[in-house]
Design brief:
about 110 residues; elongated; mainly alpha
Length: about 110
């Protein structure tokens, strides 16, 4: 619980550190607190699906690669089919990311 509280405290204080003025801090805090209609416009079913997959992966056992390899379908599949499945997974991960290269964070200060 202490780690969770510390993380949120650091995130909150980061707003004050990074903002240009106090007015923009209060505007940002007001925009994230009320739950009004249209406040979740950026949340799409695709994004919610990715979040659900990410949360679900936290509950996967450590020996999952060995368990997947033991499936008869995976054992009988040709190498090109496994490579294709892997490539599709990579494309899905790439589609979930932002376009372009993110700027180096420390150049913003």
């Amino acid at each position: 619980m202490a780690v969770l509280l510390t993380f949120h405290f650091v995130c909150l204080t980061w707003l004050f550190f990074h903002a240009e003025d106090m007015e923009s801090v209060w505007l940002y805090l007001q925009s994230i607190t009320p739950l009004k209609l249209g406040s979740f416009a950026q949340v799409t079913p695709f994004t919610l699906g990715l979040i659900a997959i990410g949360i679900g992966l936290h509950f996967v056992s450590r020996n999952m690669p060995e368990r997947i390899a033991a499936f008869p379908v995976v054992q009988r599949a040709p190498d090109w089919a496994l490579a294709l499945a892997f490539g599709i997974c990579v494309l899905m991960i790439d589609a979930a990311g932002p376009s372009g290269v993110a700027p180096f964070i420390y150049f913003q200060f």
